[in-house]
Amino acid sequence: MAGRGTIRGLSETRTATEAALAAVFREEAARLTAAMVRMVGNFDIAEEVVQDSLLAALETWPVQGIPDRPGAWLMTTARRRAIDLLRRDQRYADKVALLERSTMPVEPAEADDRLRLIFTCCHPALAQEAQVALTLRAVAGFTTQEIAAAFLVSEPTMAQRIVRAKRKIVEANIPYRVPQGAELIPRVDAVLAVLYLMFNEGYLSRGSSAAMRRDLAEDALWLAAMLAALLPEQAELLGLVALMRLQLARSQARFDSAGEIVLLPDQDRSLWDRGAIAEATATLQGAAALGSPGPYQLQAAIAAVHAQARSWGETDWSQIVALYDALLRLADSPVVRLNRAVALSHVRGPEVALGEVNDLAIELGGYHLFHATRAELLDEIGEKALAREARLRALELCQNPAERTLLQRKLDA
Questions:
Q1: Which of 189, 256, 335, 378 shows the greatest Cβ crowding within 10 Å of its Cβ?
Q2: Beta bridge partners of 261
Q3: 194-209 residue pLDDT tens
Q4: What does each C-alpha distance from 214 to 140, 248, 253, 296 come to in angstroms?
Q5: Considering Cα of 242, then 243, then 248, then 251, what sign does the dihedral take?
Q6: How far apart are CA 40 and CA 35, in angstroms?
């Protein structure tokens, strides 16, 4: 499916009507794909008929207007196209009969269909990179070219990855369903991991082509929020939504007019989206009320402490260190320890923090932010030569253009 890709590709040559169409397509494309996968049992056919229905809407709606029930219009168009395609292959005779008998109503099953699609794409039998690619393709509506660009691989490589994922779903007989009972929680965790990875890639890209892929980060938030609406009792899911909203709330202040990154101490907090911060805080409170704390909720709580501070100097670092301590108890990792050390430097001083950072050298030696953090702490204690050496190593390992510019500027200074 390429619903959003279709909008992107044609918007430069068509009228402003597509601003309205894009909003409709964003909402309808995932549920349409999910319904078609359920009905025909084939990802490729489902994607093709959805693509055709969206293209038909692009041709028809600017002239006739957006219908009162756009989802029903798209569903009817996709169903007719699916019948036409499947009639050519006798293997799908039963699917044709099912489609001909069914009116495929948009309500009330679309929520279940979208859930089935997300859980199918994020099945643990698939490698995580395949889960991400298939989720972006089938649920978020990205084209193969867009997915390849987001994750720094060639389009043929990404196409093969998606094809292999679809093939494995068939060969492994992966069920198109929402897991139940004790199976649900670990499967939700897999979905959240995919969405978190997707968001982080958009929020601060690992590649050299762009500093931030805001569209990718916003799509991750959109998918997480959609899933949260369908599974409102999952506290960690709410925590992830809150975390994404809090991070995106200050996106306008993260880069200057030249596209260079602006660190948190120097950001203009008047540019932060206070409405989004309030909404995220309410979501986080709702998650806490469910009484099931987890890593995403704790990360969101840390982000909330930063967001609620009126200035860098008023940041409650002791609370942030305490939250990192809680996070380490639930999800210990070298990166969490690195981030905790940064917070600790504001409570106990750079010497103590540097000792904890140095202990991570073996595990994080290939991570550019380890060396950049170490350089900052070395600067604070007056070890300028060692700081420069660490910063040069960070520059060697870093690909993000905005981060590279920042490192180079500090080296030049």
A1: 378
A2: 255
A3: 888 878 877 876 554 5
A4: 14, 9, 13, 20
A5: positive
A6: 9
